[in-house]
Amino acid sequence: MGLETVRALVINTVKFSDTSLIIVALTPSDGVLHFFGRGFRKLPKKSYLGRDAVETFSEMELTFYRTSGDLQPLRHSYSIDGFEGIRTEYSRLLLASFGAGLALDLSSGGISGEYECLQEYWHAISTGRRTVLATLTFWLSMLHEGGFLPPTSRCSACGGELTQPFFLPGKGFLCQACRLPGAEAMSVGDMRYVRHILGRDQGLDRLIIPQSTLHRLLGLLTDITEFEVGRRPRLLDQIRKICEN
Description:
CATH topology of the largest domain: de novo design (two linked rop proteins)
Number of domains: 2
Strand order of the largest sheet: 1-2-3-5-4
CATH class of the largest domain: Mainly Alpha
Structural class: alpha+beta
Radius of gyration: 20 Å
Largest sheet: 5 strands, mixed, barrel
Distance between the termini: 50 Å
């Protein structure tokens, strides 16, 4: 217990009263935390030492009093990166919201890699740099960091090579010999794209993903997320339109 300072990616802010906010944020060491910011909704007109405005889709340094409850009392806030480019287009706001929703659903807490995934994703959206590839990279990385993505190089059942891969939620990637009813056919090329993206290989910025492969990969990620979370990701239909158009 006591005062602590953490870096945080602000996923959402909720008005609590005329002057206060509830802040939902992803942190490197604790995963998703909820903060109660008394007086943080309407800051004084004059600069108030130690209190920058808390905005959704921003990176901040937050000082709070650690308690055993669900809401951590916020004391100070300092803006690190506002990712201003996110607010210049509606499609970018949708993508940022989609990332925030996935972070809430998939964050397992205490995994700094998840924080870095969302940070990189919001930066890519803010700069408008290859947002479709950034979305695939973020989604795959979040599943991988959380331990939800099955092994992509070997059959989950027998450990053999995936020369003709199939996928079944809950069972993973299967070879032809281990294929089960309902398994979706993938291609060796699809799996190569997945490993290429996860490996952050050289030339990733120049990677061109065929529309058919993109469609199958989005379906794959949706199936894994739905199986693990129990429902489809938020804003999925809008995000598919952005990625496939």
